[in-house]
Amino acid sequence: MTSASTSAIASTRPGTRRFPATFRWGSATSAYQIEGAVAADGRGESIWDRFCATPGAIADGSSGAEACDHYRRWADDIALMRDLGLQAYRFSIAWPRIVPDGVGAINQRGLDFYERLVDGLLAAGIEPAPTLYHWDLPQALQDRGGWTVRATAEAFADYASVVLERLGDRVPRWMTLNEPFVSANHGYVTGEHAPGIRDERAGLAAAHHLLVGHGLALGRIRDLAPTAQAGIVLNFTPVVPASDEPADVAAAELVDGVENRWYVEPLAGLGYPADTRERLGWDGGEILDGDLELIAGRIDALGVNFYSRSVASADREATDERAVPRTSMGWEIHPPSLGGLLRRLHEHYGFSRYVITENGAAMPDEERSDDGRVADHDRIRYVAAHLAEVHDAIGEGIPVEGYFVWSLLDNFEWAHGYGPRFGLVEVEPGSLRRVPKASAEWYREVCHTGVVADPL
Ligand code: GCO
Question: Does residue 113 line the site of ligand 1, with CB under 6 A?
């Protein structure tokens, strides 16, 4: 902690916000997006390797085969994080590196990699915050139905045990899944993500089995790392109706039910939202006795990923043409929605703690300063404005414990390939040289002082 940290969160001067001394500053990445080295050291095939090979699946025809080569450059990346003054680092563990076929034989070399990474982080004074599943399912399990079958949830728990047995003694915080909505919806309903399936019924089965997998893995964390904190990461997209017309309001309720409430409500012990269930016509056939209790097992912290809000219209063909500020992916920039979300979560569900596990923006990154660095003042403004909302929420008594900016590095943005850039640090195409952007310099100051000033 720096001397600037105090427990007060009041502003020191107008336009500056001081965060609590205990607030943790970090950045986030995920395995398939940065590691590369997909054939190294006995790693098995993942659904993303297979999906990227499908013509037309990825906008620029790329894949995560090389990505940022973090698998080989991990020590340099830790040095970079240390230089930025990060206190915590959220990354994900690739299941196909640990259990290449999803079940059965364990690949010690995969475990060795994450052990080196975790020990390197600890030695650098950076808290490792791993997520056990960030979308890279072993292809062998997909060949047997993937998340549409319950056996995948059981395999996930067994894989979690293997990881916990190796690293449970030194990792203080675990997250089970990243964004089960995106896994189920983009993977099994719209098909825009791996495994590229388009089947609404399959999406409902996948969503339930993902949550069962979370519940089972949570139990393994409790058994094998009883003093560690554990949670899950959900993405939230607050949704507003395009107008006050009842049809638009109903459309917004459905989107909110499918994208947001479907996951948070069972985790909070409320079961699946009845209104949404009825509108989707789901008979809940996959729910076995005890599942809802399992899913509602107590978590220590809810991970909140927030990027934007959406506008829902009864007219499914309608496009959102409002002249609002947007990122280079077209996502509306609307920081008050983050404050509103935190209030809603705390009032309705009352989790004991929250962590902003992702927040950040793809920006054009076209301007450069004289020294050649990306001058991404738009990204700085985005992050600062969202942090102001977090600060207000803390001031109102909502226990938000930390913030992980997405992302440390420019990386493989799934179906969008390498077009969108989210990094605080540029990764030069070809050389993969890391060059901190203006936002990295700005964030270093925030990490050191715990103070966020209104950007100019
Ligand atoms: C997400 C993902 C990230 C994305 C990021 C930007 O959780 O949606 O965790 O992998 O890259 O959100 O779209």
Answer: no
Does the annotation mark 389 as catalytic?
A: no
pLDDT tens-digit readout, 66-114:
999 999 999 999 999 999 999 999 999 999 999 999 999 999 999 999 9
Atom of ligand 1 nearest to the CA of 134: 9
321 burial (CB, 10 Å; 0-12 / 13-18 / 19+) is exposed
- Residue 2: the pLDDT is 34
Q: What pTM value is reported for the model? A: 0.96
The atom of ligand 1 lying closest to the CA of 30 is 10
Average pLDDT rounded to a whole number, residues 128-145: 99
> Considering the chain, what percentage of its residues have pLDDT values greater than 90?
95
Q: What percent of the chain has pLDDT over 70?
A: 97
Q: How many CA atoms lie within 13 A of 22 on its CB side?
A: 8
Q: Is 358's C-beta closer than 6 angstroms to any atom of ligand 1?
A: yes
- The yes-or-no verdict on residue 237 having pLDDT over 60 is yes
Closest CA to 149 of 83, 190, 103, 81: 103
Tell whether the model's pLDDT for residue 389 goes beyond 60. Answer: yes
Residue 179: active-site member: yes
pLDDT at position 456, please?
63
Architecture of domain 19-449: Alpha-Beta Barrel (3.20)
Report whether pLDDT(448) > 70.
Answer: yes
